[in-house]
Specification:
2 copies of one chain form a homodimer. Chain A has 15 helices and 17 strands. By secondary structure, chain A is α/β, with parallel strands linked by helices. In chain A, the strands form 5 sheets. In chain A, strands 5-13-12-11-10-6-7 form a 7-stranded mixed sheet, sandwiched between helices. In chain A, β8 and β9 form a beta hairpin. In chain A, α2 crosses α3 and α7 packs parallel to α8.
Chain lengths: 498, 498
Amino acid sequence: MEPLFELALRLPGAGSRDLLRELHRQLRSAILDGRLQPGARLPATRALAQQLGVSRNTMLAAYDLLLSEGYLLARPGAGTYVADTLPIARGGHGGRGSRSGRAPKASTPARRDPRLVPLDVPGADLAPTLQPQAARDDFRVGLPDVSLFPFDIWRRLSDRALRHTARQAARFADYADPQGQAALREAIAGHVSFTRAVGCTAADVVVTAGAQQAFGLLARILVVPGRTVVAVEQLFYPSLREAMLAAGARVVTVPTDDEGMCVDRIPPEARVVCVTPSHQFPTGVAMSPPRRAALLAFARARNAVVIEDDYDSEFRFAGRPLDALQTLDRAESVFYVGTFSKSLFPALRLGFVVAPPWARAALVRARELADWHGPVLAQEALAAFIAEGHLARHIRKMRKLYGARRTALLEALARHGAGRLEAVASDAGLHLSARLLGATRADAVVERAAAAGIVLPPLSRFALDANAPGVPNGLAFGYGLIGEAQIDGAVRRLVALL
Amino acid sequence: MEPLFELALRLPGAGSRDLLRELHRQLRSAILDGRLQPGARLPATRALAQQLGVSRNTMLAAYDLLLSEGYLLARPGAGTYVADTLPIARGGHGGRGSRSGRAPKASTPARRDPRLVPLDVPGADLAPTLQPQAARDDFRVGLPDVSLFPFDIWRRLSDRALRHTARQAARFADYADPQGQAALREAIAGHVSFTRAVGCTAADVVVTAGAQQAFGLLARILVVPGRTVVAVEQLFYPSLREAMLAAGARVVTVPTDDEGMCVDRIPPEARVVCVTPSHQFPTGVAMSPPRRAALLAFARARNAVVIEDDYDSEFRFAGRPLDALQTLDRAESVFYVGTFSKSLFPALRLGFVVAPPWARAALVRARELADWHGPVLAQEALAAFIAEGHLARHIRKMRKLYGARRTALLEALARHGAGRLEAVASDAGLHLSARLLGATRADAVVERAAAAGIVLPPLSRFALDANAPGVPNGLAFGYGLIGEAQIDGAVRRLVALL
């Protein structure tokens, strides 16, 4: 009997996607932890395949992988052996599903290699994503509920997109339009015309890999490194600012009150102004009509442009939506940025810019330089998803769900937080913010909450300087991930921590 | 009878993906070309839906789209009318499948808006893709044959990835690892370890949106704008150079002969050296072992890095592959860039970098800044495609197909081109180049060929200065798109044009 026969290998069923991977992983583990000793001879692939009930080809492939990685050595005519020197010097194996391969944030390198250009972005560790997920009550912001997403429909449309494309193989072999698939641009134009009265046609839409790429491409075409002044709101979406900084912008923050950005405080030299008028991130207030008019007047007078980040206003629960800046604009100064990360799911990585005509060619060129174009099949599937009304339907369904959670949250804040935690008025979106009325500081609350299994960010996390005048002392409550029934108890326990 | 009843609408069958889109498009066309006059009253949706045999919801959605676009006007209580002023002032409608929405190249703007940063890249119009496709004999380079791609397997794996992910909805709602899905990185590491002896684990792999994004991200972390000198081969892949220029690099070209880049001619101040050692783009020569050693010695001595672009060496037809620079490297100075655009299909937009440990965190951070991460489902599908051996199988199959075409091409060149057109020795890849031996200039030949329906690029298209000493007078023949049977005739007709 060969030694390997005594190894306890637990393999998934034949035909499983994971078979080869598991076989490879478990054999490698056995080598790494010494169950298979250096120099040990392995059984012939045929014999081992038979014993394990896998195909000989799978067995051969597993041996080949281990051979190519240096875990095994083949001695011609003499069989296969565990290598004496193991190939782990290069830093360990990431492993399946393991995150050990995850690189640490570049913002805290031990020592930078002189060959690297500094990519440090001051305050870049503000980014609110990728927090630990082991929360009992998860109020993280900006993440949607995907449990009601119609995966079956999406699968059907993806299938169809693939079949369609396969039939036009010649077209498929080529690179596609960097501006985005025509069908998707048309669908997006129809969607935003309809839902947001954003006046545009397919020709005005540039498809991007989510809003993040949109910000990066806009920075690319609008920012002269070291010179261009970009104004953001006092509290802002950290990744937007990072994209601007990474392009060399001089980013300034502008005070923001309960009517949105204080337009009269924008430095006159600002050439790009970034705002979230529908649902200020993260406070949730809507920019008032006079401020909207003033901002457009500023842009016109100063030859500046506005980046309108409309990330989650599809979810509106009360009142009439205010016109988008893009809709009000008469000077072609607004770039309207939308994303499907909130209305569908972040893993899709699809967003878009509605760009004024004078900037479109440059924006398309920037996309082409960045990565040619987006994945064709996903774009076609999304085009069909929108054109057939599934997006509108999904948004309606989710609006109901989020609306119930929002109501539960408002009620819980009123019930448990009266006099201590006061909701900021807001009619739309995937999160709500609340002000702390006492002297307790929000970041202290957040720390205590985390210890109690409640995860949520302080508003100050979205400010450059948490202590600057005007930065509200408060908390943001995302309701994309938390169930309606959980909300009351979570808020009660949170208030008890104040 | 309402006027609309007389319109000839030709709609796809009920349930078709295109129903709403076609309905919308045909009604809009009727409005635009005057078959439906301004002011005309449209029938009630219910009546028209019945007559056309579509659902009322679809009919409503079509009206809603046209209303939101301004083609129709609703007068409360009085019905729906064709608008008097049509919303076409903003630049026309892209239309389904139309390319009218395609932006012109930014390199030839009539007049640049002062708000735009110059994105002009000198020589950027070199890019060889997006040429007209109406060729009878299509020798374009860099485009694979996808007619044998196992779309059914891909569909099955995509389905499975979606089902899998749907079951882990909570994970799906979040953003994913910017370095790439762990399963895909592991599969890639296994693949390149096996096929190219590139020593790496999943932890060393960074997934990118094709090679183009890889170049852009590498430029981002390696190039100090206005300062860093980047060396490329005398003939080069235009998009690589563009990515470097766009990041502010000072790009210099280095003479290249039949052993590849002349390493002793690299300017000592170069800090990044970009090469295609397996299959020089576009001449096809392989970098000789001494040159490989010299390049690595240069990098070590000068603290420079090497970008090894290994874009199509999976298709090897003769001889043993030379070791990748990454394999030979002992100083962690090589970034190995791979892509699935040639081995699978460009529309997939997936590629990768095998990065040395010191640069990995920065590269991941650069990806995160650019667009967070790649699409999760496509990554998972590709991971399974590789892990289950389909990639290796597809490459084997395509190698046979391309090999036959390559043989046909070599034979045709020998048969018809003797003394006039001489193939450049090359053992791998998706294209072959040939030198013109007479005085006829390649670009003149290419023009005449295009008129005769034969599309192929002159080698000089990949040089900065077509007349520089050392730039070969020759042609590149891609065999990704042309059938084996067509090749002999095409070459014969081409030679007749000399």
